[in-house]
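To whoever is covering the structure queue this week,

Two jobs came back overnight. Logging them here so there's a record in the thread.

Job A:
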Amino acid sequence: METKKKFFMSCCVAGKKYHDADEVWDKLKVGTLLQLQRDLDNRFDPDAVAVMFHDEETNEDYCLGYIPQEVNKHFSAILEMGWTDVFECRISRTRLDILPEAQIQMTIKIKRNVA
């Protein structure tokens, strides 16, 4: 069975300056795979979805920030249903010379199985 991907959306990582992105900035490159993780304990947003980076060298996970609040409702519902492998999220741009809220852009695709 072949797996294909369909473009879903691009967005920037929200809240980058409050989380761990600066600790691993040198490892964040275009194409780097990220994980989306439902954050049920977030006191600021009931639909919060964290954007996580797994460092293979140290085997540690880092929270880079969040899916922007204005578009996270569908992500949170899908992840809460247990469909954690629906999306593929990769970095599509990094820039330190712009506002922190726009420094990490990601592209999110929907994975689908094709027989």
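Job B:
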Amino acid sequence: MRCPKCGEQDDKVIDSRSSGDGAQIRRRRECLGCGTRFTTYEAVFHEAMRVKKRSGDYQEFDQRKLRNGIERACEKRPVSTESIEATVERVITELENEYGREVTSEQIGERVMRHLRKLDEIAYVRFASVYRQFHDAEQFIHEIQRMVKTGRARKKGKR
């Protein structure tokens, strides 16, 4: 690691610890040339996923777009930032494990809806309305009825 002050490449690690949710390692370093202390972070490098859009075009997977969509669905709902971040991480991990480096926008949308339904039903319906392109109130009603019906079936199965 190159020293940010003098550019020397020799340093020693003074302290290492997990950062945040354990996805990164924080290292405190000291330059052997000038004695400056600085912090570095290490994280696993993930190969970039490509998303196949409905139009057939491909684009690079953008974690910010995923987070923004989930945040918009959860806006003004009692959902913590930590829950949103955990959902984003779970969705990405599941997509990488199941589909590898190429995923369709439909697979992303379905996975997000599955997690949002567990997290907050209103956020789920909001996301579904955009993702499934609801055109009228009738589609909202149909989705809510379907959600209620499957929710009852799950509760009966748990007894």
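Note for Job B: The chain has two domains: 11-43, 50-136.

Please reply-all if you pick these up so we don't duplicate work.
Q.
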